[in-house]
Write a structure and sequence with these properties.
Layout (H helix, E strand, L loop, with lengths): L3 E3 L12 H10 L5 H22 L5 E2 L7 H8 L16 H9 L9 E3 L6 E3 L14 H13 L4 E5 L1 H6 L9 H21 L4 E5 L9 H17 L4 E5 L8 H4 L6 E5 L5 H8 L6 E7 L9 H12 L7 E5 L18 H5 L4 H17 L5 H16 L5 H8 L12 H12 L16 H11 L5 H22 L4 E2 L10 H6 L1 E4 L6 E4 L2 E3 L3 E7 L6 H9 L5 E6 L1 H6 L2 E2 L5 H21 L4 E5 L14 H16 L7 E6 L8 H6 L4 E5 L8 H6 L5 E5 L11 H12 L7 E2 L11 H26 L1
Parallel strand pairs: 1-10, 2-5, 5-6, 6-7, 7-8, 8-9, 9-10, 11-16, 15-17, 16-18, 18-19, 19-20, 20-21, 21-22
Antiparallel strand pairs: 3-4, 12-15, 13-14
Helix pairs in contact: 1-2, 7-8, 11-13, 17-18, 22-23, 26-27
């Protein structure tokens, strides 16, 4: 008889109230010692494990926890440390570990980019000039800890060698087979140590195989997993994928491993199962509960799918689990006291998803009747949820009547450019920032007091105005050309709009990790979206009243608002994008009417949302570009539209970037050391562009020479007349002294570059 087990792939690291974040930042600020950091994070990690055990999970993941990022953890496991950090071998100390992620006085941080099509960012390993060794088996340490301290015989989680290498940089493609040969014995040793310690099941994450990774990677996988089968025969390895269905399914399922983890939520893995079957005697780990969204699972529907899956698993085990790690959802909904009760009843965060998994495991084991009570309760909650979906007929009719012409500006870029050049009269290489400025503890505490009713609306508004005034003066003193108001009134670039737009619901503790200690709180979209009145006008107008220099109005674009929210599936995503776009169109018109003539509509999530299946790319990119253009289509000729994107591979979406028809785009290039410039070398781009010249995610202040190097690199490809100088992202998370110091250097670098350009024309 088939053995049926419950499992989890990964659990949120941050703690119910972001205790993990506070521990990391306290250490970075020198408020706690390394020992205290380890003590606090160990407590969080063990509490996470205890909770999963108490909720009834059979296979509890260990090794999914991290002090920053799990890809970085894999790199330091094998001593993969860039030479600029002065590493001399052995276990990587905590200061070097954080220097790789955040930079140091002497060395820039490693590149950071999106984890597949999520809003999680990982640190990109650099393989050039390193000699990999197994210097610290973190998976083993976490396995032994769980066993010794909690009596939990956990499931170690490691990032598989093919995915690790494919996500790394610093080598030419022809070296890939040699790198596989280099890392293979190190992985074998890691697994042997786990085997010797008593581990029985090991989850090897290989999500790269849900992408078209190529024949070479497939052949490498055959070699790698054949070696594992020979060297660690006592370990049951689960080849774990997620986020989409597997490419080359027929060949992958022939790998000599104990089982395969498939995503039955995203992509159609069930279709593959029906068409090609499943190997006899193997374990199927079925990702049946959505690990990337927060809406409650329809248990009856999920159980029906599992009953179908069971038909294809002959003499093997079935493991029931989330579709991916639960790090992409908040920890628990039990803390939410202000969410609409009906919506709350329809929510499922990490803890609730584990309960769903345990229930489904019971239902598949014992039959549907064993969980009838749970199914009935869920059915009632979902029915009530859907019946209260907030529809807006006016919005729906507006969407139905849209045409292509509704998403076009009435003048060409060339015509707009001439008008804007004359209007703004900016110097060559104009300087600006991306939008947000440091949100100090004072800013956050004052906002909290206002929300608790401890200060009046007027007192809060006065405080925000004082912050704006202070930073307008600082920006003028620094001699920045285009200023920003600083966004001190905003909690987050998406949540803020979720609080203002109709159709959204915000949470109190719905935090998820974005990168490092940076957590975001995605709002819930549970209704048709519409504009409820000005959202950003007051602060922008006040800032503009303080200076003769142009101040940018700052908005988040429709694609990013959607991708960084938890949207209910009652309405198609493409339609929601258009709804948000029409709402933003009204906000842009309100800004224009109030005299704001440079407006930035940020879209950092366009590339992130690109489907992993290339067959779905065109439809997504066309819908994204249309929505952006729809939001900005009604602006006047002399209004300059900016947008911003960060930490993405842009080559794949270059045409979509151009199709946005923005006047100025800014993108990250500093952490990738100018590599993203290559996209613009290979493609002609006629609009204006700012390639971020320094990394805002690092506390270090770069030198003028560093920034000029980045500027010069860009100017080899982009004409100076098109080029803007700016940081690579918003400055919200930086300290005031770091921000002022870095911006001072940035302006000086721009001025020196202007002088060089002027001397060449004399």
């Amino acid at each position: 008889m088939t053995n049926i087990l419950s499992s989890n792939i990964g659990y949120p690291r941050i703690g119910e109230k972001r205790e993990w974040k506070r521990a990391l930042e306290s250490f970075w600020d020198g408020k706690i010692t390394e020992e205290e950091l380890i003590e606090k994070t160990t407590e969080i990690r063990l509490n996470n494990l205890k909770k999963q055990k108490e909720l009834g999970i059979d296979l509890i993941p260990v090794g999914d926890f991290t002090l920053y990022d799990h890809v970085l953890d894999t790199a330091v496991t094998f001593g993969v440390v860039p030479t600029r950090f002065g590493y001399e071998g052995g276990p990587v100390d905590i200061n070097t570990y954080y220097a790789i992620a955040r930079g140091s006085d002497d060395a820039v941080a490693s590149e950071m980019t999106k984890w597949f099509n999520t809003n999680y960012h990982y640190i990109v390993p650099e393989l050039n000039d390193v000699t990999p060794q197994l210097v610290e088996n973190r998976a083993l340490l976490y396995y032994e800890e769980a066993k010794e301290k909690l009596g939990i015989d956990g499931k170690p989680v490691i990032l598989g060698p093919i995915t690790f290498l494919k996500l790394s940089k610093g080598y030419v493609q022809s070296d890939f087979p040699k790198l596989v040969d280099t890392f293979l014995p190190l992985y074998v040793e890691q697994l042997k140590q786990l085997q010797a310690a008593g581990a029985k099941v090991v989850q090897v994450d290989e999500p790269i195989f849900v992408t078209n990774v190529g024949e070479e990677a497939l052949e490498a996988a055959k070699k790698v997993y054949a070696t594992f089968a020979e060297e660690v025969p006592e370990l049951d390895l689960i080849f774990q994928t997620y986020f989409e269905k597997i490419y080359n399914y027929e060949e992958i399922i022939q790998l000599p491993v104990a089982g395969f983890g498939l995503d039955f939520v995203h992509g159609d893995s069930l279709e593959l199962l029906k068409e090609y079957g499943f190997p006899q005697g193997k374990t199927l780990a079925a990702g049946i509960v959505d690990g990337r969204n927060v809406w409650r699972a329809d248990l009856g529907e999920k159980l029906t799918i599992l009953e179908t899956i069971k038909q294809f698993v002959k003499d093997g085990d079935i493991i029931i689990q989330p579709s991916s790690s639960l790090l992409h959802v908040p920890v628990t909904k039990t803390l939410e006291e202000k969410v609409d009760p009906v919506i709350l009843g329809g929510l499922s965060f990490a803890d609730e998803k584990i309960v769903e998994i345990v229930s489904l495991t019971k239902g598949l084991k014992e039959g549907r009747t064993a969980i009838n009570a749970e199914i009935n309760e869920v059915d009632a909650a979902l029915a009530e949820l859907k019946s209260t979906y907030r529809s807006d007929e006016t919005t729906r009719k507006a969407i139905e009547n849209l045409t292509e012409e509704d998403a076009k500006r009435d003048t060409s870029f060339e015509e707009r450019l001439a008008i804007q050049k004359e209007k703004f009269n900016l110097p060559i290489l104009p300087t600006t920032t991306i939008g947000s400025l440091p949100q100090t503890q004072e800013v956050r505490q004052t906002r909290s007091k206002w929300r608790r009713g401890e200060i009046t609306d007027q007192e809060y508004e006065t405080f925000i105005q004082n912050q704006i005034k202070k930073w307008i003066e600082i920006q003028e003193e620094l001699d920045i050309d285009v200023l920003v108001h600083g966004e001190f009134e905003r909690t987050d670039m998406v949540e803020y709009f979720g609080e203002k737009l109709n159709g959204f619901q915000v949470t109190q503790f719905g935090w998820v990790q974005s990168y490092g200690s940076r957590c975001v709180k995605p709002p819930l979209i549970f209704g048709d979206v519409s504009w409820g009145g000005p959202m950003t006008v007051k602060e922008s107008v006040y800032a503009q009243s303080l200076t003769d220099r142009p101040v940018k109005g700052m908005l988040t674009g429709p694609v990013t608002i959607l991708n960084w929210s938890f949207a209910h599936d009652q309405t198609p995503r493409e339609e929601i994008m258009k709804q948000i776009a029409l709402a933003l169109q009204k906000e842009i018109e309100a800004l224009e009417e109030a005299g704001i003539k440079i407006i930035q509509v940020d879209e950092p999530a366009i590339r992130e949302g690109l489907p992993l299946d290339p067959a779905k790319w065109d439809a997504y990119l066309e819908a994204s570009a249309y929505s952006f253009r729809l939001a900005t289509a009604t602006v006047q000729k002399d209004t300059q539209i900016h947008t911003h994107m960060c930490y993405s591979e842009f080559g794949d979406i270059f045409e979509a970037i151009d199709a946005l028809d923005a006047d100025v785009i800014s993108i990250e290039t500093s952490r990738s050391h100018g590599e993203l410039v290559a996209a613009f070398e290979e493609n002609t781009y006629k609009k204006e562009i700012g390639l971020g010249v320094y990394d805002i995610h690092s506390p270090r202040i770069p030198s003028v020479e560093e920034m000029k190097t980045n500027i010069d690199r860009a100017l080899r490809t982009i004409p100076a007349s098109q080029f803007w100088v700016n940081p690579d992202c918003g400055l919200k998370t930086r300290k005031e002294d770091e921000t002022i110091g870095a911006l001072k250097v940035m302006v000086e670098a721009a001025k020196q570059s202007r002088e060089q350009l002027a001397s060449k024309t004399v």
